[in-house]
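Quick one, T. Sequence first:
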Amino acid sequence: MLSLTWLDELSALLRPGQIEVNESPHPLGNSGAATVYPQTEDEIAAVLRYADRQGKKVVIAGRGTKRGFGGQREQADILLSLEHYTGIVEHAAADMTVTVKAGTKFGDLQRALAPYRQKVALDLFWPEEATIGGVIAANDSGPKRLGYGSARDSVIGMRIVYPDGTIIRSGGKVVKNVAGYDMNKLFIGAMGTLGVLSEITLKLRPLPKYESVVLLSFPTGDVHDIRSFAVSFLDTMMEPVCFELLNPALSERLTGRPVYTLVIGFEDVENAVHYQEQWVERLRPKMAEMSILAAEEASAFWQAFYTAAPNGRLALAKNGVEAAVKIGVVNLDVLAVLRESVLIADRCHVRLEAHGGLGHGLCQVYVHGSEEGVLAAIEELRQAAVRLGGYAIVKHLPFSLRQRVDVWGGKPSYFFLLEGIKRKVDPNKTVNDQRFIGGI
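Structure tokens:
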């Protein structure tokens, strides 16, 4: 009997149409010689078990929006796509929890919950494309993190398929689950290097009765005026879901005005939202110009905002390359980062759009230009972050350029712990090898 090739052996584990051979690697890397599309947890486990025993490398993907995030491997043996592993497993509306398969698109989940006047309180980019598993694995969040918290605040339980095919469960399905160590946090933000997230249980919150977005534009460009207002506002009892500053380039794209613009989001009953809008009106500096986007206008603004970031599913940028950089600093140091972004854009001859939360200190910077210009801008952004006592992580970059820059910015002091956990859980380095900090 003729021996089967490894692709034939892999095909035998799946049903017809669940595997396809890829012609060439993707320009963003993190691709596979073959892509498999499991539809059940048992199929995910079977693929991982086979790969682990045969010494094959596996890259995990949802719908590929984060394909350009991390990874020093251009092409693994297998791309495990969860694109067809979707759906709600259980929705306990009275308990305000939902359990969902990892390949489910975030937008689809929110629409399924809307008739119950509930939602998942996560804030992410490209919500119509990004999957729940990808969001959790990357610990992705946007400006509403100020009011919503991060993925670590929403996840209460998970099922994970380990690289050897073992299926484990962490956490539970109820909000008040406090027994033992919170194992969920081990997998959130680990970039899939410890296994495949199969099912995620999330706590829900009610849909707001009303929402609005207050835009405060600062035509003079004086960051001292913005800082003074921010300090005064943060000292009030106001409860915005976001308090985000846009640099002039991003403000021009989203509002048509090339000036520093503060985006203040409110979600509550209508009277409470209007009360807080009036507070902003009384508190704002005289030179600041204020406008309010309500209801549908606010939704349209957020749709444009969330699709401004690079997306691994889109064609690569024309006339150059694009990158996305996440920077973390003390909250009011966001002003220094955004001011520096304007100077870096001029020095490196790139277009640089940036926004940052004056309440939580996280910035997102999108860079577009020549290869050398983009790399120079990334280096300068990282230097600026380090000077402020912060960090910079490259969230999107073509594979060829990821060979020339340290995406994660060096190994942290606790790297030995991460390395030890990876070695224990995945000794053969089967899943998402070299995708995380320090080449883990």
